[in-house]
Request: fold
Amino acid sequence: MRKFVVISVNENPEYLFYVPLVIWAWEKFGWKVILIAKEESSYTNLIWRTQSPDKILFVKNDKYPSAMVAQVARLYAAINRNSDDYIMTSDADMLPLSDYWKFDSDKITVWGHDLTNYNHMPICYIGMKASRWIEVMGITSSSHIELMNRDIELLPNAKSNNPEKLWCLDQDLITERINAVQFEKEFVHRGVYPNGYPIGRIDRSAFSLNHPQYIDCHMPRVLGDHRNKAMLWNVLVKVWPQEDFGWFGEYSEQFSKLVK
Reply:
């Protein structure tokens, strides 16, 4: 069985920047990456030259904001995949730090449901076989645009003026769909530290390397911020002290020139 992580980006360079590092890290733990992007650009061309995902899908839907499209499009990553492929959702700015994600492929697995007080199914992380994704999401077409237009229209929060509600549309949708099916589910509870952050997560909002275990890193925004760039480098050398990250340093310099 092949294991895939699906991440997505729009045209925002702050998220595009992370893609090669995220691809590299997931591959370290035996996962391939499916990348959904808005369109090809000088940024994406640099990314492909640095690290290549298993598959690149360009999804553009002018009916909705590009960030919303990028988020929701992940839920249809099973389009044109082998039925036995295992697909798990994640974020472009979430870096895996260990081989944490274990699963029974016959079940729908939701990691960290406790982090939302058992409300939303968190997009980081939900996994199941492609054949199950097709059933859960009602994938009856090979068109991301057609499926998104069908499903987003049914979500009450899609017409909200509240940015927080718009930001969670993908979780609204997948939570509704998973709750509606009878397939067996497994919920892997993450737990939180006293400060409210997930166990094993290095988070940019409460940055610390003092963790008894490392699971993932919600990466700091490094473009134009030397302090945050140093924080990210500290994570890399702490978790992978034997690795040569010269390639990432070179990529960072080239990317920064494109931004300027």
